[in-house]
Amino acid sequence: CLAHALSTESEEIMGLLLGDLDNDELMARVWSVSLQRREQAARSDDRVEISPEQLAAATEEAERLGEHLGRPTRVVGWYHSHPHLAVVPSHVDVSTQAMYQQMDTGFIGLIFSVFNSGR
């Protein structure tokens, strides 16, 4: 995730986290990521959106990975970067996370604040 976040300084990146959730221990185990491309119609460089088609494709990717590894694997969360911004979630980030958590209460979200200097 961090390498992906550091891959561009000019716009936010995004991806989906693949792994499994242990609701009894309130723990997410992530063993892979699905890098997501920004949609051409993205409203601005500081917004990321994962389309339903991207989410469906990542779900299929997780199932294939799970078969290969011999362990259940699914989309457990999402991540994105905040280049030159604080790690604090924006109102859009909070809304996006709430939407995902309506579908799965254990769905996690990570934000990577990158390219910040002590200027």
TrEMBL record:
PANTHER family: EUKARYOTIC TRANSLATION INITIATION FACTOR 3 -RELATED. This is MPN domain-containing protein. One of its GO terms (molecular function) is metallopeptidase activity. InterPro entries: JAMM/MPN+_dom, JAMM_MPN+_peptidase_M67A, MPN. Residues 1-119 form the MPN domain. It holds the Pfam family JAB.
